[in-house]
Design goal:
The protein has about 190 residues and is mainly alpha-helical. The protein is about 55% helix and about 10% strand.
């Protein structure tokens, strides 16, 4: 599952989980890896102790570095993406046969991971709704953050299924439930 910033991917992932699907957030996996000893050591070696004061990775400081220096972002992604990909693959391989598993991958198309999955779901929301959500989370500058990503329309056009998340959580639940039923139907 993918989607644009503030489209409601996390809420959709939670809705899938409430409907019985196994779920995993690739962002959560990446955050766990950043906090782990292996990546923390690599980050400190690359950028110095300032990125892990007291032994804790300062994600805000890392964000400053990588958004100011595209080469550093490429380095971080080259270290992190293969590790996250391996963890996601391991998780998927451990799923019980026939169980629906949903993995949230915000940069799915940007990292060319779409072929690793049986189906791609894109969560979309009206641009104004997304701006309001991003502002409520303290993520100002939605447009600037989106410049690294494909547009919402491009992601939706490349997905196998699209879920609209402009309304209530109950409406989102209904869309998720209907999609799970379609995906669970024989021949899907």
């Amino acid at each position: 599952m993918t989607g644009a910033i503030a489209a409601g991917k996390s809420e959709a992932l939670a809705a899938f989980e409430r409907q019985g699907a196994a779920t995993l957030s690739s962002d959560a996996v990446a955050h766990d890896m950043l906090a782990g000893e292996e990546m923390r050591s690599k980050l400190v070696e690359r950028w110095g102790e300032e990125v892990a004061p007291g032994g804790e990775v300062d994600r805000a400081r890392i964000a400053e570095i990588v958004f100011e220096q595209p080469g550093e972002l490429r380095w971080l992604e080259s270290e992190l993406h293969p590790r996250v990909g391996a963890e996601v693959a391991s998780w998927g391989a451990a799923l019980a046969p026939g169980r629906i598993g949903v993995i949230e991958v915000p940069l799915l198309f940007e990292t060319s991971m779409e072929d690793a999955f049986d189906a791609v779901v894109c969560v979309v929301a009206d641009d104004e709704v997304r701006r309001e959500r991003a502002a409520a989370r303290g993520q100002a500058g939605l447009q600037e953050r989106e410049q690294r990503q494909l547009s919402q329309d491009e992601k939706a056009s490349r997905a196998d299924h699209v879920i609209s998340n402009d309304g209530t959580v109950a409406e989102l639940e209904d869309e998720v439930r209907a999609l799970i039923q379609r995906l669970s139907a024989p021949g899907q």
